[in-house]
Amino acid sequence: MAKRFILSIDGGGIRGIIPAAVLVALAKRLKGLPLHQAFDMIVGTSTGGIIAAGLTCPHPNDKKKAACTPAELLKLYTDEGADIFKKPLGAAVLNPFGINDPRYNPLALEEKLRKRLGNATLDQGLSKVVITAYDIENRAALFMSNADPENSNFRFWEAARATSAAPTYFPPALIERIGETDPQKRHIALIDGGVFANDPILAAYVEARKQAWQDDELVFLSLGTGQQNRPVQYQEAKEWGIVGWMQVSHHTPLISILMQGQASTASYQANKLLNPPGTKLKFSTVVNNQNVATLNYFRLDQQLTNAQNDALDDASVDNIPELEKIAAQIIKDNAPALDEIAKRILANQ
Question: Of the candidates 160, 165, 163, 187, which has an alpha carbon nearest to the alpha carbon of residue 176?
Answer without folding.
Answer: 187
